[in-house]
């Protein structure tokens, strides 16, 4: 495995871990004070977190690939060591010391490689575990900020609505508006009353028989009395 790539991978991983910890430890309230628009600030803060989250996920995927590669190397090296051990034993049994020496030499070389691979695998596993832990923390922070953002957005919208209402009230004299509506209501009421009165007068002024339904029984009784007095 290329040493330069391993170093670059470790450097990238540690850089991401450092940035994640900086974000997680940031004082959100102080950050808020430097922005006039809290929603824009939260959006910017979350974009930065999501960017680091994506980088952390990519780094974690890369670490898992490296970890798997070392595991394969360890298993392959163990197989070679086992094979060379069997070859050395067989050569000794046959009295073939030269072949036994060659097998043992290769066995020793692979044992040294195995030790290096195991140490590197342990380091990669530690990095993977650390990155995974920080990734979980960053995910929790992101989820919490999503919830807080929605709450903050709701509060901001409510505050803006109140401000608009106050501006409208300050722009127009509410008492004057109410008095104007009262005058309009009174005018409409007078128009309705006049129309009703005109309709009643019109009914009473109709020819005989058309307005009978509007005359009371007392009026009929009075009419009969007048007719009797006048012998009509």
Give your account of this protein's structure:
This is PspA/IM30 family protein. The protein has helices at 3-25, 28-33, 38-94, 97-171, 174-204, 217-229. It has 232 residues and is mainly α. It has two domains: 3-171, Helix Hairpins, CATH 1.10.287; 178-229. It is rod-shaped, with a radius of gyration of 48 Å. The model has no long low-confidence stretch (mean pLDDT 77).
Summarize the model shown.
It comes from Paenibacillus cremeus. This protein is mostly helical.
Keywords:
232 residues; Helix Hairpins; rod-shaped; PspA/IM30 family protein
- Envelope shape: rod-shaped
Estimated structural class: mainly alpha
Q: Ends: how far apart?
A: 136 Å
Biggest β-sheet, characterized? none
CATH architecture designation of the largest domain: Orthogonal Bundle
CATH first level of the largest domain: Mainly Alpha
Order of helical and strand elements: HHHHHH
Strand-residue proportion: under 5%
Quantity of strands, as a count = 0
Count of domain modules:
2
Using the coordinates shown, work out and report the CATH topology of the largest domain: Helix Hairpins
Which percent bin holds the helix content? Answer: over 70%
Helix tally?
Answer: 6
Which residues form runs of ≥5 with pLDDT under 50? none
Average pLDDT, rounded to a whole number, is 77
Keywords: Coiled coil
Family: Belongs to the PspA/Vipp/IM30 family.
Protein name: PspA/IM30 family protein
Organism: Paenibacillus cremeus
């Amino acid at each position: 495995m290329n040493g330069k790539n391993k170093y670059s991978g470790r450097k990238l991983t540690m850089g991401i871990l450092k940035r994640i910890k900086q974000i997680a430890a940031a004082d959100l309230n102080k950050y808020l004070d430097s922005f006039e628009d809290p929603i824009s600030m939260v959006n910017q803060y979350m974009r930065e977190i999501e960017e680091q989250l994506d980088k952390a996920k990519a780094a974690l995927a890369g670490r898992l690939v490296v970890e798997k590669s070392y595991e394969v190397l360890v298993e392959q090296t163990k197989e070679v060591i086992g094979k060379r051990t069997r070859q050395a034993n067989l050569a000794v049994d046959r009295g073939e010391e030269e072949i036994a020496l060659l097998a043992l030499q290769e066995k020793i070389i692979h044992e040294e490689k195995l030790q290096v691979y195991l140490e590197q695998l342990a380091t990669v596993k530690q990095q993977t575990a650390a990155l995974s832990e920080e990734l979980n923390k960053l995910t929790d922070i992101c989820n919490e900020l999503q919830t807080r953002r929605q709450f903050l957005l709701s509060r901001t919208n409510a505050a803006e609505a109140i401000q608009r209402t106050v501006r409208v009230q300050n722009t127009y004299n509410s008492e004057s508006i109410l008095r104007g509506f009262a005058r309009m209501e009174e005018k409409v009421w007078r128009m309705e009353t006049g129309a009703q009165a005109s309709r009643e007068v019109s009914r009473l002024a109709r020819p005989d028989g058309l307005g009978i339904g509007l005359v009371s029984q007392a009026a009929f009784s009075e009419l009969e009395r007048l007719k009797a007095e006048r012998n009509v």
